[in-house]
What does this fold into?
Amino acid sequence: MTGVMTLLEMAGARRQPAAVSQAGVIIVDAQKEYDSGGLPLPDLAPRTTEIAKLLALARACATPVIHIRHLGKPGGLFDPQGEGSAFIAEAAPISGETVVEKQLPNAFAGTGLQALIRRLGRDELIFAGFMTHMCISSSVRAAFDLGYACTVIASATGTRPLPRVGDPEAVLDAETVHQAALAGLADRFATVATDVAALPD
It folds into this structure.
């Protein structure tokens, strides 16, 4: 025991991961730009496999699934007409699942996501996808502000290396960035589950 506590722990909150059967599942930007495109992520395959496990569980429970698709500018990353904006096959939507398109990191900004979730009547959300420090973090924090209880699945999210601030020659490896982003969310904004198997029935 390190003695370091999250703000949630200091407040006496006992948060548990959401049950898939009671929540809405949000898959953020599971797109080919992170696979064969301009932003390849380390260890993408096992993370995509975890997303596929989450989708299989949600579909078995008839849980609503919303897929977020990021659209960039023509000719750039996530070109709307390019291969990078397409979904990774293992994490792609099936018939009956909703796709929400966004142009900013926060999936609620300038989209109909909030209205869609409100119609579903779910007040708990489970997040998976990419990238942890960017669109996952932005979307989860926005969801928290809107009153939703959020769960993030660590093994079903991931990110990329980043330059260290003040020292452009030094690099923070992807796992460090990933863990720091998860720690920031777990401090106040979300429950972080280690993997899909850690979710309650």
About this structure: The first strand starts at residue 24 and ends at 28. The chain has one domain: 20-194. DSSP finds five helices and eight strands in the chain.
